[in-house]
Amino acid sequence: MVIKRIVKALLKVGGRIKQWAEEEEKPLYNEREEPETEREVHSLWDFLSFIENTQAYHLVNVIGFDEWVDMQEIRRRIKELFGIEYKNERSLYPYLKTLVDINLIETTNIGGKRKWRKKELLFEIVKEKKSEKESEKEKQKEKIKLKIKKEVG
Length: 153
Prior knowledge:
CATH superfamily of the domain at 42-122: Winged helix-like DNA-binding domain superfamily/Winged helix DNA-binding domain
Low-confidence stretches: none
Distance between the termini: 95 Å
CATH topology of the domain at 42-122: Arc Repressor Mutant, subunit A
Structural class: alpha+beta
CATH class of the domain at 42-122: Mainly Alpha
Strand order of the largest sheet: 2-4-3
Oligomer: single chain
Radius of gyration: 34 Å
Order of helices and strands: HEHEHHEEEH
CATH architecture of the domain at 42-122: Orthogonal Bundle
Number of strands: 5
Strand content: 15-25%
């Protein structure tokens, strides 16, 4: 009796093994089919424009992304690029403060000297590519609209 139970249990296990071997392998991770998209990366600095010959315009053009620049270097670059020398450097601070407050420029204070640099502000534009069927449907809709306009007009 005990032997019969053992044999039955082994046969059941054998059947399960056979069933497991015949099953199709399922992937561990399901792959999502994402629609084809077109991605474009832009910098916010490409879209910002400042009024020419203003202090903000001068500051934005002389401060770069790579290096930290102090006020003496900023004034030297403005003089070199634009031929303008500010009598009072304090007139530049409110513009720098505003640019820092709106998160366009970073600031650091090392050893009592302030230095600035531009922040790299990148954003991505994702455009979904339309399938051929969708584009054909849109073309047909436009043709129908044109026919209706011609008939009405």
